[in-house]
Amino acid sequence: MLGGYAGRFLDVNLENGKLKDILLDEEVLRMYLGGKGLGLKFIYDELRDDIQPFDPDNLLVFSTGPATGARVPTSGRYHILTSKSPLTGGLGSGNSGGKWGPYLKFAGYDGVVVRGISNKPVYLSIIDGKAELVEAPEIWGMTTINVTAELIDRTTKDPRKTSVACIGPAGENLISMACIMNDEHRTAGRTGSGAVMGSKKLKAIVVSGNDRQKPANPDMLIEKVAESMTLIKENPVTGPKGGLHVYGTAVLVNIVNAHGAYSSRNFQNSYFPDADEQSGERLTATYLTGRTGCWGCPIVCGRKSVVPDGPFSVKTEGPEYETIFALGSNCSVKELDAVIKANHFCNEFGIDTISMGGTISCAMELVEKGKIPEEKLQGLNLKFGNAAAMVESVWRTAYRARFGADLALGSRKLAEKYNASELSINVKGMELPAYDPRPIQGIGLGYATANRGGDHVYGYTIPAEIIGLPKKLDPYSTEGKPEWTIFMQDMGSVINSTVICLFTSFAIGLPQYAGMLEAITGLELNPEKLLKIGERITNLERVINNRYGLDRAADVLPKRFTEEYVSAGPSKGQISHVPEMIDKYYSLRNWVDGKPTEEKLKELEIPLRTS
Fold first, then answer.
1. Rg of the Cα trace of the chain?
2. Residue 224 CA, distance from chain mean position
3. Are 457 and 502 spatial neighbours (Cβ–Cβ below 8 Å)?
4. Amino acid 418: pLDDT
5. DSSP string of 157-201?
6. Which of 97, 147, 108 has its CA nearest to residue 19?
7. Cα 403–408–411 angle (5° rounding)?
């Protein structure tokens, strides 16, 4: 077996309770690395066009990569995939940090494939190579924080070396934006994987172990890690004096707002006058009590926060930049304490904060435009800027309580229900994150072509377009943006299959990733070979979505961005030019109408399956 791998996945059949090992093929690892790539391969090999999100055959795949748990920077991550997302109708995909990924590896497995539906609520325990399904109806209904504490208490292992991935009430109630949480506050957030887990009656997976995988070339790994660590520590974003460590991801609030891309009022505006009230600087000066990082992370961008009193009092972690935008500015809520409380509720109940905020802001605009009758709201005062209503909407969504049953649909189906589809700001059914694409052309193209929907991390052009790393690109210009978007998407596929943190890309690039992976695995790698692997993974994901009917017609932005110019603020007069860039993007990819050609698939050694 190649270095860095445990060499096996656990196959879990919840219908009959059978557990078996799947031995990994080295050739498959050479082609797909691990993490996202390997998970996609498992799904593609069993893919059915007619599969539905809550079918027993909808696979739920937890997948680590060769760098997970290795002694490389930010190696605490893992990837989650589902054959069919309940939010988008396409492939489901999410990524999380914390320590769950490493401890799954240390327990002796590279990943877990879950199939079938259990008759009763269960949890899966993987301790020191021994896997067991445990009936546990008594934990059904618990919040993520409570069930994590309960299951750690039940194990005989050191709590510091045990980790739990679980769902909360939102997943149990099949909320379309439900997520999977681990280590209380780490989130595999997007596309509704928590609802798929809930449909299977699988409440949690507990992992613990001490079996550390050995690298193929330890001396080379020490050298390559030292090189990467130097670059990370010296970088103005990732270093000990950098913005991510000092202010967390919320350092972006004022930066993006100053550019005129920090939206408010459901993306009606692209500038928020009260942004400073919820910035990383303000969080640090008011509610911050400490910093925290994922396993093996030198950046340490996580926040520990306390709101000491008032209606939103809470002791928690976060919030992140995307969350502050989604539950804050996009709802025109300026109160940071309310955002902290709503974020905590999302973590407790297991809800993706970006989709939750996007759905609440959509509902607020529906109310503003008279689309939702007052009696339907049942007393919930959903007006832009109402902090209390925003917070209340979160728990109502988790339990489908009153108007929460409508919010649980997600913004696309909510807007459709009230005959105003144009007010859902989504791509492929997934709510957009915290960058207005009108003044940032590359991120707009990335949103439109992202395989999982409104996704900024799939092709993260923000470092170049806004911060100037690794080089400064003019955010208003379309010149070179198809090329840059493709590069960032394919490199993102590499990072999510390795699996390490995207934030490393602020400081290091393909030469460093290739060097560390070669030392870990023993594969002969260079930047070109590694990027080709990323391209293969991106194209395989696209092929799966094509099988579900997603093609050119789905690679579009909401009309708000392509037909309505920014009306005020620093980016006044800007509009997205995605329609002008999309054909060149397809040509460079060797895709036709959003579909890889047979020639491209043959080049990438992806077999074209028709059944």
1. 22
2. 28
3. yes
4. 98
5. S-GGGEEEEE--HHHHTT-TTB-EEETTTEEE-GGGHHHHHHHTT
6. 108
7. 100
Note the pLDDT of residue 458. 86
pLDDT of amino acid 94: 97
Instruction: Specify the residue for token string 């993490």.
Output: 35
Residue 609 pLDDT: 77
Say which CATH architecture domain 248-430 belongs to.
Orthogonal Bundle (1.10)
Low-confidence ranges of the chain (pLDDT < 50): none
Work out the burial of residue 599: count CB atoms within 10 Å of its CB; fewer than 13 is exposed, 13-18 middle, 19 or more buried. Answer: exposed
Is residue 336 classed exposed, middle or buried when 0-12, 13-18 and 19+ CB atoms within 10 A define those classes?
buried
Task: Give the CATH class of 435-603.
Answer: mainly alpha
The DSSP letter of residue 267 is T
- Report field, pTM of the whole predicted structure over 0.90: yes
Which are the contacts of 606, defined by CB distance < 8 A and separation ≥ 6? 536, 539, 540, 543, 596
pLDDT score recorded for residue 1: 85
pLDDT digits (tens, 9 = 90+) for 211-234: 999 999 999 999 999 999 999 999
Q: What is the DSSP letter of 434?
A: S
Which among 142, 96, 101, 104 is positioned nearest to 121, based on CA atoms? Answer: 142
Structure confidence at residue 160 (pLDDT): 86
Q: Which CATH number fits domain 8-208: 3.60.9.10, 3.40.50.300, 3.30.1330.30, 3.40.640.10?
A: 3.60.9.10
Query: Which pLDDT belongs to residue 384?
Result: 98
Measured in degrees and rounded to the nearest 5, phi and psi for residue 13 equal -105, 105
Residue 430: the pLDDT is: 98
How many C-beta neighbours within 10 Å does residue 97 have? 28
Q: Decide if 151 contacts 138 (C-beta within 8 A).
A: no
| DSSP string over 336-347 | HHHHHHHHHHHH
pLDDT digit string (tens) for 441-451? 999 999 999 99
State the virtual CA torsion across 102, 80, 445, 271 in degrees, nearest 10: -80
Check residue 48 and give its pLDDT: 94
pLDDT value for 608: 85
Instruction: Please give the pLDDT value at position 165.
Output: 98
Query: φ and ψ at 202, to 5 degrees?
Result: -100, 110
Interhelix angle 578-589/481-498, rounded to 10 degrees, is 60
Cα–Cα distance, 428 to 449 (Å, whole number)? 10
